[in-house]
TrEMBL record, chain A:
SMART domains referenced in this protein's UniProt entry, alphabetically: CoA_trans
Protein name: CoA transferase subunit A
Positions of region (Disordered): 233-295
Keyword Iron-sulfur among record annotations: no
Any Pfam family the entry gives: CoA_trans
Gene Ontology molecular functions: CoA-transferase activity
Classification via InterPro entries: CoA_trans_fam_I, NagB/RpiA_transferase-like
Family, as annotated: Belongs to the 3-oxoacid CoA-transferase subunit B family.
Annotated organism of origin: Candidatus Segetimicrobium genomatis
Nucleus recorded as keyword: no
Keywords: Transferase
Length: 295, 254
């Protein structure tokens, strides 16, 4: 089956309302902004987003009303600061109520790893005694059958789909990634299927020339879209994160009559106005990435 | 080497850097600690190794200023780029000597909250743990950097995101944490250690120009001061030069 397709078609085919979606799994790098913005354009609803640290992508999807729940360790952007859409949704239910399943980076990584390994849970020594694990639907304190130690059992979390952005892949979805990897590899293995966006679609021979670099095998992947998406999140070897772009997504445009006016957070940038997605489209229209130097 | 141009954040960064001993494995964290690690590595701890939760391991300061761990200068020239589970396994395995943390709230026993705050009765959702709960639970010791103001220093955190000594010494063992705990809290006003018996924060030094009364007024419990309360040494000329090299625009220390 032909896997290579336009991003709009890939999202239309494989992303459904109500799905559990892991994305932004690279921890600050390789954030699939183009795919996220396409999900917004296609107005998907009631999504459950999974990711340790999502950059501002989760915030945008939440602000656009696509999300009913976030399973994450940290929602925001280190450079741009607090995620105001996330805050507004949690605190005030705008544009819709948002449930949060809190994690630490390691617990969300282990939940996804358990699913990737096909086991119901993995044990850990982290987060014991914290309010994160108190009454948590996916964590239980257990006693080790070998040592008697008190451990945290982290239940498996299997996404319906994982969306990854890679530096390059072939037409089968065999992908080369480099730089810091976050939980991208585990998320690809845990999910029912993978939607892959890549900076560059390459010949099969480029992939097989360096098999250690193939970190996602194509048999996991359903769809491949070639997308220049490096600048919004930063892509090792290709581009820096674009701080100015982040800044632009925060200040503009404001609906008339709803200025900041000393409130704790700026008004919702897409509060039911016509053309509500304009600022997000601006953010999505990334320029072409610089070519990698040596290949 | 104090001059009027020295900022409290420069004092904090220099103090943080001095917490790193040569040859140690450091879980670096974000913001000011990024700078502290770069400083230590460039000056007194050339064999220190830095782990970053996004999967980066490096043994040299980044070649250019960085805002966050995912910035290209933190990846270029790294020793290793790997996964989150891989770097955090070193932490869980017990190989990390010191981890750096920040927080919206820190309490008397060094517990941290980065999940929920409150402003005039209104609950405010903060970003969450990130890797902080893991570092606080699993590093051999932790160093906390935090801006010192009363609303950030309650007697007891509203929500325990990252464990310090819980309700006192012995708590960590009770809940199943086999090692670690906070060793130092560096604030914008002073530096604290922890009482060996009670696990309570004890003031060890005041930053230049800060009075004990001023610090007490900004703290939500009656602060215990060490009998030999000192002044925090300000950054040396060498430290100051390095801070300015790594943070040329004063983004973090201005």
């Amino acid at each position: 089956m032909q896997k290579v397709m336009a991003l709009a078609e890939a999202v239309s085919r494989y992303v459904r309302d109500g799905m559990v979606i892991a994305m932004g799994t690279g921890l600050e790098s390789c954030i699939p902004f183009a795919a996220g913005h396409e999900i917004i354009r296609q107005r998907r609803r009631d999504l459950v987003l999974v990711g340790p640290i999502s950059d501002i992508l989760f915030d945008q999807l939440i602000g656009a009303g696509c999300v009913s729940k976030v399973i994450a360790a940290w929602v925001g952007n280190v450079g741009a600061g607090i995620a105001y859409n996330f805050r507004r949704a949690v605190e005030e239910g705008i544009p819709r109520p948002l449930a949060v399943e809190d994690h630490s980076n390691l617990t969300v990584a282990l939940a996804v790893s358990a699913a990737a390994m096909g086991v119901p849970y993995l044990p850990a020594r982290t987060a014991l005694g914290t309010d994160i694990v108190r009454d948590h639907e996916r964590m239980r304190e257990v006693t080790c059958p070998f040592t008697g130690d008190r451990l945290l059992a982290v239940g498996a979390l299997r996404p319906d789909i994982t969306i990854l952005h890679a530096q390059r892949c072939d037409r089968h979805g065999n992908a080369h990634l480099w730089g810091n990897l976050g939980i991208s590899l585990e998320a690809a293995r845990a999910a029912e299927t993978v939607l892959l966006t890549c900076e560059e679609l390459v010949d099969d021979a480029v992939i097989t020339s360096d098999p250690n670099r193939t970190l996602v095998p194509g048999f996991l992947v359903s769809a491949v879209a070639e997308v220049r998406d490096a600048r919004a999140g930063g892509l090792p070897g290709l581009a820096r994160p674009d701080g100015a772009r982040h800044a632009r997504t925060r200040g503009v445009p404001e609906p008339p009559g709803r200025g900041p006016g000393g409130t704790a957070s700026p008004p919702h940038p897409a509060a039911g106005r016509p053309g509500e997605l304009r600022f997000l489209r601006t953010a999505a229209s990334c320029g072409r990435a610089r070519s990698p130097g040596a290949r | 080497m104090r001059t009027s141009a020295i900022t409290r954040r420069q004092v904090m960064v220099a103090a943080a850097a001095r917490e790193i001993r040569d040859g140690e494995v450091v879980f670096v964290g974000m913001r000011l600690p990024l700078l502290g690690f770069a400083l230590a590595r460039a000056l007194h701890a050339p064999r220190a190794v830095g782990l970053f939760e996004n999967g980066v391991i490096r043994s040299s300061p980044p070649a250019a200023p960085i805002i966050t761990m995912g910035d290209p200068p933190n990846i270029a020239g790294a020793l290793m780029c790997t996964t989150l589970v891989d770097v955090m396994s070193h932490l869980q395995r017990g190989r990390v000597d010191v981890g750096f943390l920040g927080g919206a709230e820190v309490d008397r026993f060094g517990n941290l909250n980065t999940t929920w705050a409150e402003d005039r009765g209104r609950r405010i959702r903060l970003p969450g743990s990130g890797g902080a709960a893991d570092i606080a639970a699993l590093a051999r010791r932790t160093v906390v950097l935090v801006h010192h103001e009363r609303r950030r220093f309650p007697e007891r955190v509203r929500y325990l995101t990252s464990p310090g000594f819980g309700t006192g010494r012995g708590w960590r063992e009770t809940v199943g944490l086999s090692r670690g705990g906070p060793g130092r809290v560096i604030t914008s006003l002073g530096m604290f250690g922890f009482d060996a018996e009670s696990g309570e924060m004890v003031l060890e030094s005041l930053h230049p120009g800060v009075t004990l009364e001023e610090l007490r007024a900004e703290t939500g419990w009656p602060v215990r001061a060490a009998p030999d309360l000192r002044e925090t040494p300000g950054p040396t000329r060498e430290e100051l030069d390095a801070i300015r090299r790594f943070d040329p625009d004063g983004l973090w220390t201005g």
